[in-house]
Design goal:
By secondary structure, this protein is mainly α. The protein contains 8 helices and no strands.
Length: about 200
């Protein structure tokens, strides 16, 4: 297994540990900060695996298929976790509504289904630039939401840096992400409509 594919696989593991940090029932010191670090590391693997694969000529069918899947599992898990966090903490300054996550998850399932249909026809659909922008916006939004939860665990001087703007930024990025996720899904389905229309 080459390095980019190892990074892709590591993203699955980091996602599991990230969720453990969020929901382990016993107290964990700096729980939200730990979750932020773990998710940041997972997001970094997403940036590195594609860049290394392209620069070193290590692009494989495994990477083409598993990289987007690892992204989807990482981001969808985080957004679903935020819905649960909102339920457990109704006073949270940024609330992630269930309908927002339904839009995000439905888009990811639809595109995964399209890729499976393409694979059944021996066609590999690579991620498009619009989809990458969507993933970047999701990662930024998730990190912003994690900072909202975590910055209360930080020293007072650092809290003063983030408190004035982080809640507003997280709300803004959440709405941008929902809109961009829906738009990118519709564009992807339209551009590849020949794949499913031929079977209807």
């Amino acid at each position: 297994m080459n390095l980019p594919n190892k990074l892709t696989v590591s993203r699955f593991g980091l996602t599991v540990v990230f969720l453990w940090a969020l929901f382990w029932p016993w107290p964990i010191p700096f729980r939200n900060t730990l979750a932020l670090i773990l998710f940041g590391a997972a997001g970094l693997t997403d940036f590195l695996d594609g860049r290394i694969a392209r620069s070193r000529g290590l692009i494989t069918n495994f990477g083409i298929l598993m990289d987007p899947l690892a992204d989807k599992i990482m981001t969808c898990s985080a957004f679903i976790a935020f819905v649960e966090s909102t339920r457990l903490n109704p006073e949270a300054p940024v609330k992630v509504a269930a309908w927002m996550v339904i839009v995000i998850v439905a888009r990811e399932l639809a595109i995964t289904g399209l890729r499976l249909l393409a694979a059944s026809k021996n066609i590999v659909l690579a991620a498009e630039k619009f989809g990458k922008h969507k993933t970047i916006s999701q990662i930024i939004a998730i990190n912003a939401l994690l900072v909202v939860a975590a910055h209360h665990e930080w020293p007072p001087w650092l809290q003063d840096v983030f408190t004035p703007w982080v809640v507003g930024f997280a709300k803004f990025m959440l709405w941008v992400t929902v809109a961009l996720t829906a738009a990118s899904g519709l564009i992807y389905l339209w551009r590849n409509r020949a794949l499913y229309l031929s079977d209807m």
